[in-house]
């Protein structure tokens, strides 16, 4: 393990020391080469260069043209790079905005980032993270600008971009630019994304197996039409804040969370507020039903207990057909999807703008027929649930999939659900899937980042505790692809909350813990300091 670790870090650094022989060898040559990139010099079909600029390390880059709702006004750039902004026509009725950041100390690798939610937003912080590590990186706007799904309305081509074409086009164009700029081929191609970005990475593995050698996906929005049915259905369970079925947010985060821990935290052998395998938690909310004359802010009515029970049950559709796995206990701390009545904007936008194509459609009317219709239409072929990954496997691709078990937006139970679907579809047991597909269930990780446990696994720059493959999912994928070292565990870092002063520096380390690959689960050995990773075992 140690040797391989060093070789990955060495190969990351070696670009600095190889005497370059071309025009890029000097800072002036690099700047000039960057300035010389034009639409014509690239000659890529449908691609128009908007501008190029040399960005010096330490620059606070601002993005005045980025849609305000994206909330990404600036990014501190840590390495010298050439920034190329383009527009690429994807059909007569759609286009993507694409950026390619080419670092001066290139590690010879190519990488694509993804998006999140409905965006519409180039994830500059991810591009900065991976270019700072030396990857030539692309990021696109997913075919529209801003965080709303409204641009899908009567625009099937824009939906296609969102479903698959933005990432794929960005990869095809970005690879050509990378090769042209450095005047040599990249060695390997990678992907890093979470949530919608997780779905985009899975889509590439399923439908464009040539695009990447190593793919890191987190909390993927898999089975997308059904996911939106599931996200929308919580409203039907909870009702409005005035109804007697409603459970206020503060009850979820206090008494319900505490009671879940009381019933399930010890299942992994140690009570520390972290449930290592949430699939084992069959929570019984009836324990919280009020005693006579009990203060109702410390207990539940029978109706509220029913709401809690239903939130943690799978969703079934017309004729009892299984639609989506249950929300997992552990999500209640950040359960944005179900704990507050907000008109479930995420799900309703898909139904409004892509399924019904009706901006006036009322989300309160959602029902079983809508779920059936969405799955039947499958706009843009967005479902992303193909279980046959054999083309990706055959070309030697590696898929590293992780999901936080405190995710309150996309249930972490969809990840083992998909993994098992792949296992059955391909007829392969885990011992065989292990050669190209590994799933890690991360205790104490919320949706992509955050959470109460060892949630820093290098999935984002603000959740990066180090570059050793054993504790960084991106470096683990590189080590797997290039050196054949498959990750057995991912070492997560928990930081003391409130001490993280700068998003690029980690706060004081609280503890570290190794997260197991599915179907293994983490248990405490019964001896020693539980904050020491060595006191836990994958069984
Ligand atoms: C970068 O510039 C923006 C806009 O001027 C500013 O709001 C932000 O604080 C700056 N960031 C840093 C790290 O200096
Ligand atoms: C270029 O755009 C056209 C139509 O706008 C589209 O049909 C075609 O697929 C695009 N080509 C590439 C290589 O993306
Ligand atoms: C998105 O915004 C960019 C920058 O303002 C603009 O060039 C592009 O045309 C916009 N894309 C769409 C699909 O509106
Ligand atoms: C990239 O690799 C291909 C196939 O091996 C080769 O034909 C091509 O010349 C290479 N391009 C550069 C710029 O080295
Ligand atoms: C019920 O409990 C809450 C929170 O502990 C407290 O603020 C409130 O005063 C209590 N109400 C009664 C009637 O005791």
Automatic annotation (TrEMBL):
GO terms for biological process: xylan catabolic process. Pfam families: Tannase (PF07519). It catalyses: feruloyl-polysaccharide + H2O = ferulate + polysaccharide. Keywords: Calcium, Carbohydrate metabolism, Disulfide bond, Hydrolase, Metal-binding, Polysaccharide degradation, Serine esterase, Signal, Xylan degradation. Its EC number is 3.1.1.-. It is an enzyme of class 3 (hydrolase). InterPro entries: AB_hydrolase_fold (IPR029058), Tannase/feruloyl_esterase (IPR011118). Residues 1-23 form the signal peptide. GO terms for molecular function: feruloyl esterase activity; metal ion binding. PANTHER family: FERULOYL ESTERASE B-RELATED (PTHR33938:SF15). Belongs to the tannase family. This is Carboxylic ester hydrolase. It comes from Cylindrodendrum hubeiense.
